[in-house]
Amino acid sequence: RSIRMKKIDKNTKFNEIFEDKEALNLLEEKGMHCLGCPFASMESLEQGAKAHGLDADELVKEINKKRRKKK
What we know:
The chain has four helices and no strands. With 71 residues, the protein is mainly α.
């Protein structure tokens, strides 16, 4: 079961996102295996998305949409 946190935005740090299972699963589906990455605790979602060639704004929309469906 996921911990409910504030709405995720592109400035949200990965260490906060790791508390939300739906968000973490979506990142993994996108090829962002951030949980094991040494940079993840320091990076924002925007920084990680850029490093993986993904659009941060679209990723934020997808994550929050998925989280809303699980409520």
